[in-house]
Structures
1.
Amino acid sequence: MFPRLRRQSSSPVRPLSQSIRETSIPTRNPKNDVTPQVYLGHGRALIQDGASSPVRRVNTPPPLGDSFVGSVPAEPITSPSKHAAKRQRLFQRWNTLLPTLFHAYMELMRITNNLREACGLNLESERCNCCRNARELTLKIVRFEKFESIRLWASDCRPAALQLINSGLFPCAPVYPSLAVDIRMLDFVTRLFLRISPNHTAWCGTVEDFLRCQGYRLEGKDPLRRRFGNTLQWFNSLQASCEAYVTGLLNDTRHSLRDGVEEDDSGVGKRQGTIPRSRLECSEEVESEDRDTNVDETGSRKRKRPDDHESRRTDLLSRPSDYLRSRCPICFGGEFDPEKDRLTSDVIVCLDACFTQRHNSQPRDPARQHPDSFFIPQSEVDAVESRVEEARTQAAHATKKPKTSNEQDTEDDELEDGMLVSKSVLDLCGNSFKAAREFLAKVIPKGCDVTALMALLCRHDRPLWVVNMTTPGERQHYAIALLEKLFENIPPFMHVGVLYDIGCHLERSCLKWGLLEEHMDNLVFAISVFHAFGHQWACQLIYHPRKCEGFGLSDGEGAERLWHGIQHLIAYTRIAGYHLRVYTLDMQLHFVNGENLLKMGTWAQRKYKSLCTKRAENKIELAESGKPLSLLRKEWHDQVQTQTRPLPSQSKNKGKVVVEECLRLRRSQSALEKRVKLLQDIIANPNALDYEVASAEVDLPRVLEDYNKLTDKLRRKENALGVSEKRQIHHLGKSPYVNKAMNARALKTRLCERVRSRKFELDRVERSYRKQRSERQLNEHIEDSVKRRDPGIQQLAQKYNKLVKEMKNLIVLRRAPRNAIAPAPIDVSELFKLDIADELWQDIGLDFDEVELGQTAPPPWLADDKVRQGIRAMLELDRCEEEEERLAVERKAMQSWLKEEWNVLKCTIEGTDDADVLHQLELRRKHLCRLCVLWVDALKDFEEEWDEDWGPSVEELEVAREVENSSAVEVMEYEGGDTAFEREIDPVLTEQLETVALSDEYRKSQIDFIDVDL
């Protein structure tokens, strides 16, 4: 509660620091400037003594005169704290300094052979006379084996940071550093923190304790942690910026080669000699061109008109962008020709959110951004959210029509426009998943400015884009933003398969609200494998990737594996600064992609062996079924059509609706009967014209067919009501028995379908014979998902039994039609045994018009075990064939991408005259050779014939293979003696001395011999 404002300052209960007094508005005193709480008339105001604020405030001029009585002054402007302003200035200085350190860092890496060799100190020991700002600095040096202290002179022409990098050190501050760390240690810690949770406190404490045991110590309490953290942070920025710079040079060469432009004397080489400012700004502050977007920042659905460069890059895109090709060379590195036969889906991606990757609310740190970030800017996400809300609002207004109570009561299940699954099934799927309920909080948003991460990955578990989620629930606009970003970076003819936990609901929303409207023809939605068993069986028939054409053996669970791989960052990123968290995640995602790329050959090999095993097993299953493929495909089509059709629902006017339907059918029957009689009279009339007779002869068979179909349908409807006489049906419109019978019929139809679906879902578990751990876990997950829906099925049976009991009571009270028979109740305890004699399958008292006329036996896909076995094997074989075809395409893409990268690298090396840049390009060359060796050795088991040219020569591959498969160590030889002394002396002199010593020894022995003789 705020303290009560009083005119007198004396208060017996309020502390002096919170007392309020009335005063006249004084002149502004900068030393004692207090903001009034309330402005009174005649220049008076109420102020609070001792009022303090955690931040400095700039007071606005107070209102004067009686006209401002009771008015509230403008809100004070809050200025940043001293600490925040200091951090911002430090951030700007680092951004200015880093571009000047590129050459020094690359030169250091070349001279020291990537830090393998030690680097001596290269510091200025004398004052620079050409600069005014020369200063002498004393720094502490942190190395693995010791602490050191050095002095140096820094100036504008020789900054301290530049001198330290030339000496193999990196400073903690850009201008006045007090500590520097060995770059070897920084590089080691960077690689370590990519594999464990970053912990500066633990590392610095370990270093201090380790060196203290050897007699080294830094003065002060916790003297290392804060400065070491700053040093590591900006060293990582320097590394990433240098990497982005070299990548940019390669992309420049790639674009020149693709455009057919030859480099002249002012081409690549001279441009690499001096680093252009535009490249540096792009590497540190500006996103790459591949990440640009033409989404209007205002959130409007109208897109901005792209300029010539963007139009050439997006509208005329003939292959995926350089950004996507760098993210996954296997998916996007191949050739895509719209004139040639391609896969059903050119690429397969998956979506998922992780609500454990949250971030606590806190003041924002300086906006340090990774030069090659995975994150979509928040402004673009907000723009997509605005468009989604606008589309929903417009669609809601366009279709907004209040339904009458009769329409609401008679509304049955139906197929929505464009969907293959009925509305009721989609609603049940939505109730099973929290992700489908957008406004259901999956996390407590209080105290969090980021509630989750959502990622878009390819089927090789390589992240493409990531967004920060700021809502407590899994809103659909995040998935829409990721998919829009994907389509901006691929040609318009490419087709995409999307695996998502709630893919059915995402497609439903896109069709309902017009989202992704221009891309829907290129999209195929499916459900990730592990989440598919939580959906209804009818939904699985359409969206399960093992039943959906084009997805092969892709599982869509790559995001789950990604979240598991970066779970060690949860604690660190939750309390880190906002932009530091994003930067850390970017570094981790780049590391994940790098490690994944090395293992891609092994991944393809494992997938190929898996599909060969599955194919062999299912060929045996298909042979044991003894059914031809043509029959199995027909039965599978019939099964899908039957089990995905809309089901009848209950309503309080169900009987009245059926009666009205019967009356309508009778009127239609009468009209068709008159039409048949008219056509027959025309044909039999000798005076009719020839064209009239010919027309009647053509129309009569079609009208007779319609009449017979309508008559059969009317008979089934009347049998369902239990009446056949025309005079009785008019009296059944308000019959309570007929209404309950129709509702019981609808309930039983739903109940039978739910029980059948349950049986089909558990079929995998019941026929499972493998004992692998993964198979057991999947079976347990299926059983849990299915049994979680058992109470809903039992509730349907209880509702049905209640209606049956009410129907019996109406028969006893003689309020039912004549000769009416009530159906038997269902034993809920025996519901899932599926005995053929169960009351569930008996139609006494209820006639189902869904059963085709004349059909008495159940269809083979339901009753024949061999047919069901054959259908399962057929679907698995189809997916194996798709997977083999996709693996072949991906194998070609790997080779095509590697050949292009090798050609681009060679051209860049040939046009480069900078030794430091050449060293970085040489590292890229060795990396490509290593990739080629790992991929070629892993893919040698593929049966098809492939081109042997991967880019590198045979000799280069042999060298890389020898390096990869052999140890690289320094051999230490020890023969005893003073080896250090022997290395220092001249070997010729040593030989002469040994000869003289031997001669002296011989002479001495001769003298001794003569003395003895004497």
2.
Amino acid sequence: FTPQPHVQPETKKRKGGSKEDSTTAKKKKSASDPVTLNAPAKYVEILHLKEGMLMLACVKEVADFDVVMSLPCGLLGFLQIKNISDGYTKLLSEQLRSQGTEEISSLDRVFRPGMLVRCVVLKLDITKGGALSIKLSINPKLLNKALRPGTLRPGMTLSGCVESVEDHGYLVDIGVGETKAFLPRQVLRAGQTITCRVDEVKGSGRVVRLSVNPLALARTFADASHDWSLTSLQPGLLVKAKVKTVTKHGLLLSFLSFSGQVDFLHMEPEEESTYTVGQEVQACVLYIEPVTRLVALSLRRHLLAPGSLVDLAPAGGDRIGEVVDGCRVTSMHNMSGALLELPDQTRAFVHKNHLKETAQTSALDKLLSLPELSCRILNFSAMEQVHFASLRKVLSGGPHSSLSVTVLPQGTVSELLDHGMMVQLSGNLKGLVPKTHLSDIVLRNPEKKYSAGMKIKCRVLSVEVDKRRVTLTRKKALLTSTLPVVSSYAAARPGLVAHGFVVSIQSFGCIVRFYNEVKGLVPLRELSTEPLASPEEVFYVGQVVKVKVLECEPEKERLLLSFKAVVEGDTAGEGTAAPRVLMEVGQARLVTKSAVCLEVAILPEEVPALLPTMHLSDHVSNCALLWEALEEGDVISNLVCLSRNKESITLTQKPLVRWGLEEGLFVKGFSDLAVGMTLVGWIKKLMPYGVFVEFPCGIMGLAPKSALCDRFVTDTASVYQLGQTVVAMVTTFDEEKQRFLVTLKGSEVTDPEGGAQALLLRGLRERRSAEEVLAGRGSGARQELLELTVGQKLTLAVEEAPEGGGATFKSDELTGVAIAASKPHVLGVTLTPGQKVTAVVLQVDLLSARVHVSVLPKLLAKKKSVSVFCRCVRRTALCLRAPECA
């Protein structure tokens, strides 16, 4: 769903209207003023976009020559391969000219779906259909054009592109002329786009040293010392801001020396009513309008973690095209739209153009008084993590998800293209008839048979709901076929005879495709009863053929087919391929790593696979430490295969999940579920109304807020963390809607192997092992930190003790280590710079080389007995198993 250009309807002023309404109406009369909300916060639309505008975007789809970007407020933009960077363009040109075997740096090696990217609006074009197309660029020279060598400061975060590989690292193009940017050795590729942090500036900005540590980036905020200006301010920057104004439509914030706005879609839903004037918040710069000089900010958590991947689909599954009854309007924003609450308590946004029919002029405020509404889900906006919906009846045509290969829809020819024909199926639903499917034979002049406006009947060949793509056929043999439809590999049983069409002719045989991209091979020996030397002389691409399935391997997506067996009438027995076992324990070698995922090669066959960072441990706090301890070439043990598809294999190292698989506490499909079944999974997504729990094989269930723990929960984020391993029990399931509920209450689920205490001890041993590896590979400071223990007493010198705050210390024995005590741990103790004090160690952070201490007399007293300590450990273990104890 891409919002289309539209004409703003006239709005008559109501009698007795409020002063706010009157002011808004006056503003709308001015042609020079952009369309804004009737409150400070502003909602961006296509009409507000200007060339040169900087925006934060999310990678939605990666094709061969362009990338589809999800922009704020449901907009879509397109990044062409030539607009990435000068270095990437040069690299591609060199690879294409060379005769070597070096692998081409394709876009899918540079971009990953869900990746956050800083971009600039390069051009606004009108498509043939009249829609506005947004062309983007991420070239550092355009993104950072306002920066000069003298304006670069340590601590800045910038976008760049890996320009070349050097002996000890990389040269990075950050788009600042006369500046050489160096990145010490990482696991990167030439041409790769990165978000990096400036660690050091030399020679008046002519040489800078960069880093890409995701943990450091997540803790880096824009600072007044960076001297950001409104023209150099970058989308994606993290800032600390203060609330100046609160309205029902959003917030007005102040940060650095600027003012910024947060619209209602970029506040956390469960915190909307909690914001107060003067409150300090962490925000992310969303976009900067160059004309109005507006800075838009976001408070959404998924945008405040640089390096993480944004979910491109809701946790409850794809619902695009679904008609939802029983919705209600929760808030009206007259200049932008309305927020709906769906029956399952999820939110949906309805743009003002989709609140009513085009010709309808009734007051939109009446929608608030309606007890129930029906809406159709149009899209899911990754940037806002909210569905976009419509109340218009004109969009009652069938959605993509309602189409299947058994449907023969009636359509209208809308356009003839070089590669096929576009057919309008319903209000907002179009399909493509490829050129080879316009007829049973290939038409040289399709315009002689088809013309715009002609009514035709088609058959659906494939539906790609995530890409909103429908492929159709006009081949009569397929339209009238009475043979079984092969729409999945599981449906292709040996012995089955079906119609398909030839898509490729090779020296070893023909490739035949069925429906939903299912395809198989007819080897040379099965093409005919007579030997064929040249298959291309007998068959042609697009030809409809009748084939028989000889062998089928659904898990490998392989089919062996025969033309000969159909002619001979062979009736070989039917059968099904045995399903492969899900669990495969083994080792893998680390190939490369990013903030959210490790790319590994399963040994000994070197099969590529993915190991998500959150799957390194059952304990979320250990994952970052284990990630940092691993290096390229390391062998990772105790891995289990979670799921596999034709694109990738996903592994896990979570001991509890591995135990669940070994004990059979998993299901391979929805049909295997039963009430009372115990499953081991992990937290996939936190929502105001509960948490979504993912299980092996990609199955996902919802734990409502009432079933999270044995005490009342107000905020799900205070109880669970993303990636946390949990034991769940199935309570209810809906077979028709393919949805089920689980409980995580400690009183209702079975304890894992060894109980909570064993889980805690395993986590502590895991953490200690990772710390030892990290210290061995790191600096001397880390080795010194490893020798420290919680409860150990240190003699320190006070470095700073600001009034009303905490204190920092220094030690001759711990060099390069930051030692600090927070305000509660210096309360009532008088400290002066240079004073010698005794402090007790509270926590040692090996990653940041930081020690947290306390100088409170009660903590410096004699340690408690062993029995008391054991009770504390037991209590901590229970807290890990049952969050309600927290």
3.
Amino acid sequence: MHAYDREPGALVGRAAESRRVAALIDGARAGRGGALVLTGEAGIGKSALLDQAAETAGGFRIARASGSEFEQELPFAGLHQLCLPILDSLDVVPESHRDALRVAFGLVTGVPDLLRTGLAVLELATAAARDAPLLLVVDDAQWLDPASTRALAFLARRVGADPVAVLIAVRTPGSPVELDTLPTLAVAGISDDNAGELLTLHSPLPLDERVRDRLVAEANGNPLALLELPRAGGFAPPATSSVPTMIERGFQARLTGLPDEARLLLTVASADPTGDPGLLWAAARTLGMDVTRAGADAAATGLADFGTRVRFCHPLARSAVYHAAPVAELRVAHGALAEVTDPVVAPDRRAWHRAQACGGPDDDVADDLERSASRAQARGGVAATAVFLERAAALTMDTGRRIARTLDAAQAHIDAGGTDAAADLLGTIDAAVLDEQRLARVDVLRGRIAFIRSDDDSGPALMVRAARRLSATDPDRARECFLDAVEMGLVVGRAGGLIEEIMATVRAEAPPPTSPDVLDALVVLSTEGHHAAVPLLRATLAAPLWSRRPALASMIAGEIYDLETLAALAEWLVDTGRGTGSPTMLRLGLAQRAVDATLTGDIGQALAATAEEEAVAEATGGTPLLYHRLHLAAHRGRRDEMLPLLDEATRGPARVTNVNWTTAILHNGLADYPAALAAARRAVEGGEFFLSGAVLPELIEAAVRCDEPDLAARGLDALTVRAEAVGTPSARGLAASARGLVTGVEDHHREAAELLGTSPLVPYRARAHLLYGEWLRRRSRRRDCLVHLRTAHELFAATGADAFARRAATELRATGERAVHRATGPAHEMLTMQEIAVARLVAAGAMSKDVAVQLFISKRTVDAHLRTIFRKLGITSRAQLRDHPDLA
């Protein structure tokens, strides 16, 4: 029973919060799982609510974990602690996912599969809840390691159809961003009346009314402060102290007058996050303590309970004890823990204790930490890798090895998203002692940091500087750095000639290649144009480029209208990402699949791929990619969906031309031609190698509509050059359609309809028919125009191009005819994005368990989606789903 219960099961001043938690548990008991994150300052009562939930969840299996500020560097440590009570259900999890979880927990060796680990945790939780509902309780989530936080958030979002409740407490400020989108309950201070009641009930001494009022005011509604300050005699704490600081001082006051051995025992306990009493007593014996007496004296303080687990009365108590200890005492405590920690069972925890025990450089400990870094990296713990390497560098005596480890640590911090930490580390290196190779590496790391931060355009410049340093000694690596600079320039270029400057430097300074490569092809493109460059660009589109630089391969394929290669590249990335467990490759492939599907008019495929990419991003702790979502929203004419995406894209390292291209598509569909022209003009004036050509059809149409014939003619000339160099029906058809629009010559419209009739670019085929139909209607050729306008409307409606479909419908009305609509809307208008993904997979023959694996949801959730899909589509079976015309 918690110290400030009013009666069994009831907390003073927490009726509303208790009802919210009870609703979560009742929902899970009825098979409607969910999650709730309790936020608030230290001592505000979050832990009490967690305890109350565990005590009142009758009939539930309960698994608990608590974050530790001393274990934030150990990947999956928090998740392992949470899953320990339910690992008896692990055998029910499919073998590949079971193995992924065992690797993550360090139970077996191997390379972690981040894609399967999150799903394995979900499957483990749902398996554990088969016979009784499951309550997962996590306290102090702000101290969980990042890998555990991502897995927990992934799980919490996917138990809506399962008898699983996830209850999390996190201290604010400091809540992990991964938890931000979960349902949240802010736990605020209790009222003065409740505070007075609590203080009266639990004060060890009768209180004068004025003293009670003062304590209530000082505690500011914090229940733990109300309980601890009187116990510590803190009747007049300094008004400038925060409440958590006052509480820590109250806990530290209990240490006053404590025998040295008892105090040291508490310090050792505070330094050990495992709570293993066997480890604690072994460490105490190595320090020569009288364990019985020291344990009794320490327990008498009420700060910790030494039972089957060592538990502090509150996380602030552990922190208070640890931070009250002198540095020398902390080193002694960590040294004793290192001595008794099994180097085989827990090598990383032992290495960390050894490091904390060091008072100065120690190469043996540094080597131990470096080995821990390698193990952490093998388990996917990039943040842990960075921390281990950083500490190893600090303990390394030799200057050269210290610099090497510092650079490795900076690289690991970048990989973990810690650009500030990486920049700080690089700032500690004395450039005067570096050779050209290491100076080049510093430039590369600084370039990556600048590119990720989008601080400015210095990323490409730093890559160029690195390439110059390497040109004489490592020409192959120098060319790679030059290519890095080009790729970065393609992303951050802002109509300021950046990419032209990079290419000029490459032409003048890049060492010659051993054989023609993509950098050569780009140089030819920048100097001689498309006719000379297209054959070289085609030659670069081989598998090695796909694996090394898939984004660049995609740009090249798009530039030369190689739609088959674009589709093949997307499928290769998806298959390779699934096969190797690489979330980056899988997400790139899914995003490319979505763009290809949008451009070819397969709206269901585009929506399904987008839903899956978002699921993979969430499962692996990433942010959903933007460019395919921009294309999808623009193609569908969804201005409201597009605006927040544009805002996000322009704040990050997004390709500005891509943003402007999709903006121009959106506004041309909405017939807002001035806005389309402004966006297309910005894109073309950016002068990028890639994508600016793709914008030309948008520029030409908007310029014609806005009566800017010279601009339209210049755009047509540029598009014609590209189309002639490439020579594909798609490229020639786009140019012919634009030529018909500019010149008003019917033969060009007819040619466009014929060429694009064989092209997979169905939306552009529809646009060619729309333009031809408009031209015919203006010439009063009603019968002829109706053929093309009807075709345009049907194609736009089938491909989800709603804004363009409305344009076609408007043209039909002008002829006196109404557009024909389906009796029921297409599936993509009736179903959510995830429902479409489920429906397409099931229609293709996948079973629920296979759909669950691919979409990172539980089998129960798949079945719930299917029930909704059947209802919305008016069908009753999977066979009818397979026969649905929109899901083929």
